[in-house]
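Support reply, case 0932

Customer input (verbatim):
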Amino acid sequence: HLGYFPREVSGIPKQVRLFIARQLSLSGDLSMQYPWDSRTFGYHLVSIRQYTGFRFPEAQDKMDLESWLRSESAPEAITFADLFECAIQRFRSLRIELPSEKESQRIVNAALNGFFSDVHQQMTHGLDRKVRKDMDELLIVPAGEAFSPFEKFKASAGRPGVKNLQKEIIKLQQMRS
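Our regenerated output:
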């Protein structure tokens, strides 16, 4: 159900434990009595993996997933949740157990950050060299001033009035140039 093997009973939703108890015709949830730190657990783990055809994720699997998400899924996924679902489906289709939820989220975050970095690089390289230089200069805080020109562009226009309108026109002209 989870896509990975929990390491303790609290990691298994109660509904799943009750479903399994009904499947085994047990009178109730006996999962607290299961020997989690034993050879029995290891034996059951191997048996389940053989039966389902799933395998434990290796470091290379995680790197491959991140790369696949970054190049194939991120351009189509609208939200983090969508990309997370793509990761789950990818590992399931490859018959690889999911890493823990926290590790899966880390992989998806890395893929998303990598995707945005790639988009940024593509956009940057698509700009003329002079435009990139001018944009970089907007980020430099001139000597004796507290704010960069870019920070001044972002500043509020202030109260309505001719003086502030003229300042906004100058900002617009600077941006256009």
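We compared this against your earlier run and they match. Two observations from our side: The mean pLDDT is 88. The CA atoms of residues 71 and 115 lie 7 Å apart. Please reopen the case if you see a mismatch on your end.
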